[in-house]
Amino acid sequence: MRALQIAATGMSAQQMRVEVISNNLANMSTTGYNARRAEFADLMYQQATRPGTVTANDGTIVPAGVQLGLGVRPTAVSVTLAQGSLSATGGDLDLAIDGKGYFEVTLPSGASAYTRDGGFKRSANGDVVTSDGYPLVPGITIPNGANTIAINADGEVYAYFTNQIQPTQIGTITLAEFTNEKGLEAIGSNNFLETEASGPPAVSTPGVDGLGTLKQGYLEDSSVDAVREITELIKAQRGYEMNAKVITAADEMLSATTQVR
């Protein structure tokens, strides 16, 4: 019976939905994390009677027809582009993007990655790096003897020294923007890679060309809404149970058919 196969695709879809929800809930405390949503589409249809077909009896046109669906399939796990709230940390190298944009960092392979996690650190050489040690692009090196670091909304980085009234500018942080942010490839550690779907990055100064501004001493929280995710989890669980009921019903119908004498 087709019902067995159709219900199986439904159970598989709801299982994938639960996996996406569980990943969202697991990343409730991940800096700069955007919630994901599983998306689905119906499978092809068997056209027992096509709509608009002329009947052989009297030549009238069938208004609806008989189209039998074959189930569901996953189409995408899309990112919900919503900025999380900004939490004050007080760290000199903690940066939050208030608006659109991504920080660019360099991976060990030499490729560029992009992130909204602004929890930067200072390496042994004084370079500004991510928690995984990936250097920020453009590179910024904090000189020895610098007491404090100040970063304004436009990304200009200043270092303050003892017995020096005026600060010294040591670099400028830029941001990257993509035509299709949902097309970025997630590689873990809050990093993304450019793809054909995302388009090339447009790099500019914070606050220019629609990019967000920087806030020093803040980090962006995860945008996961726990109440919404729990609600979606309940709906997915009930959907899984109903598809399982269909399999049970189809099995009982087949059992009744085999017992017919």
Automatic annotation (TrEMBL):
Cellular component terms (Gene Ontology): bacterial-type flagellum basal body, distal rod
Alphabetical list of SUPFAM superfamilies matching this protein: Flagellar hook protein flgE (SSF117143)
Keyword terms: Bacterial flagellum, Cell projection, Cilium, Flagellum
InterPro entries the UniProt entry points to: Flag_bb_rod_N (IPR001444), Flagellar_basal_body_rod_CS (IPR019776), Flagellar_FlgE/F/G (IPR020013), Flg_bb/hook_C_dom (IPR010930), FlgE/F/G-like (IPR037925), FlgG_G_neg (IPR012834), LlgE_F_G-like_D1 (IPR053967)
Lineage top rank: taxon: Bacteria
Flagellar hook protein FlgE/F/G-like D1 domain span: 96-159
GO term, biological process aspect, one: bacterial-type flagellum-dependent swarming motility
One Pfam family hit: Flg_bbr_C
Domain Flagellar basal-body/hook protein C-terminal: 215-259
Domain spans labelled Flagellar basal body rod protein N-terminal: 4-33
Record's subcellular location: Bacterial flagellum basal body
Subunit note: The basal body constitutes a major portion of the flagellar organelle and consists of four rings (L,P,S, and M) mounted on a central rod. The rod consists of about 26 subunits of FlgG in the distal portion, and FlgB, FlgC and FlgF are thought to build up the proximal portion of the rod with about 6 subunits each.
Family: Belongs to the flagella basal body rod proteins family.
This protein's name: Flagellar basal-body rod protein FlgG
Organism, scientific name: Rhodobacter maris
